[in-house]
Amino acid sequence: MATHHLTPLHRAALEVVAAHAGVPLDTLKVDVPPNPSMGDLAVACHPIAKATKQNPMAIAKAIADAFVPTDLLASATAAGPFVNFRANRPALLRWVIEQALGNTLVPAVGTGKTICIDYSSPNISKELAFHHIRSTGIGHALAQIFRALDYQVVGINHLGDWGTTHGMLIAAYQQWGKEDKIDLAQLDIAQLNELYVRWRDHTNPLKHEAAGKWMAAIVAGGDAAEVARAALAKEVERCALATNVARDWFKKLEHGDPEARALWDRFRAVSWAEFEGVYDKLGITFELVRGESAYEPDLADVMAELRAKQLVETSEGAQVVWLPDQKVPVIVEKSDGASTYATRDFASAKYRHATYQFDRSIYVVDRGQALHFSQVFGMLEKAGYAWAKQCEHVTFGLVRMGGKKTSTRGGAGVMLKAVLAEAKARALAKMAEADSPAAQLPLVNGVPLAEQVGIGAVLTVVVAMVTGTESFSVVKALQLTGLVACIVGLKLVH
RNA sequence: GCGCCCAUAGUUCAGUGGAUAGAACACUCGCCUUCUAAGCGAGUAGUCGCAGGUUCGAUUCCUGCUGGGCGCACCA
């Protein structure tokens, strides 16, 4: 047990037991008794019993009998193999108040250390879906905690603004933009999102209107099956061609094609304006907003480096890196020569280390990305960077609403804006219904109280649910009881 | 098929190598001079998935099994 973070009270209890038994401090630990009436702190004597081959109950009794009150400890009693201590309340309270006033209640364990935290990192050109609040909220909470511990925190928003997805958007705009009379000057994120979803459907053979009939016919067999099979094959081929069109657009973008670049710039600006509004509402901030595209100039160097270190092989036309104990290699360059996000994350990790000399670099990303991050960290290690061990992937599970996933891939996403609006509306209704005096308070920091309460509740619940199969509902979040109510209350005070 | 994660109260989730495993919601009862709601108080609630192992002691650590989630090369 790390003894350097102990409060004087904990240390005092440990010292009493350790001194009497003649064992080092760090072999013992302090617990809280199951019942407050038993005492404030408990030290178990089992480790001493093990070391000295004595009866733990006898040891505890001997220590309690020999106890002499100290500045901080008022009494000691033996309870089975435990020594239970009661604190000297006035002395303890004085200590707590002094620490609180001096703002030293939280140990400054991070002084002089830098920590990079990658969170939120949404994809440009898609609306912020509800699930984005997980990474955003957890990352921001971690950042605040590390700041309180006196770390220098670099909150990073690694925008997904590069890659084939953006080729898809350009392709979709080329395909439908004109006929739909999409005005680039008036473009909004909903339209971009729609283009994206439409393109994904456009390149998915199973989304063809006749796909259901074909599948049925194939299952039924006979001559009709042959016809259906041919039609499906044709559709698959068309989708493959369309997919290549998107890949080509991304390649053009990577090579600086002016038309591709201009569209991408516009899509990016529209998206960022939208994101900023939401972050503002949530009270989320970043030290660095740097998209994947910013690493594009580094990619050639990364490839050269990986090749120089003889890590790259050609496999099925793509450039790949094999990692130990992995059945599938990491693709660092696609067969058409375009980059992948593994390469870009490799470059961004190097950038972060070069720029901030971080002691830790944390990525707050859902656990579906676990393989990806283990690959990126693995490549860094294989490339000889010792600091790869200081990189960590902080995972969390998917958010479910009503038992369903909230992914945007299929276009059935739940929008973050909608959830926040609902939270606000419900908070407002709740206040009015309870005839609460709070409803009379018009603004807190210029924002309607209901909005603060609603957002606070949603953020708190979303950050609190870290493991397992989460299920979220706004109604639940707004059951302002217990912990949630306390935290929301604190948020309002600040 | 392979890999990673998870399994605790009716539900959603905490938690720990040690003493009686917790909270919220739900449910039941009571209080707030009438009813309802909100509020407050109390109560009921558990084979800690199953089976072995390590240990003085396992819900916690290890192995196997079962059940669920996610991921497995040119999306990010």
Task: Note the main attributes of this structure.
disordered C terminus, RNA-binding, alpha/beta, elongated, single chain, five-stranded parallel β-sheet, Gyrase A, domain 2, 4 domains, Rossmann fold, four-stranded antiparallel β-sheet, 494 residues, 16 strands
Q: What does it look like?
A:
The protein has 494 residues and is α/β, with parallel strands linked by helices. It has helices spanning 8-21, 46-52, 56-66, 89-101, 132-148, 164-176, 189-202, 211-220, 223-254, 258-282, 299-308, 341-356, 370-382, 416-433, 449-464, 474-477, 482-493; strands at 30-31, 41-44, 73-79, 82-87, 114-118, 152-157, 288-289, 312-315, 318-321, 330-333, 360-364, 391-394, 400-401, 404-405, 443-444, 447-448. The strands form 5 sheets. The chain has a 5-stranded parallel β-sheet with strand order 7-6-5-11-12, with helices on both faces. The chain has a 4-stranded antiparallel β-sheet with strand order 1-2-4-3. It starts with 7 loop residues before the first helix and ends with a helix. The model is unreliable at 407-412, 434-442 and 489-494 (pLDDT under 50). It binds one RNA strand of 76 nucleotides through helix 2, helix 6, strand 10, helix 13 and helix 17.
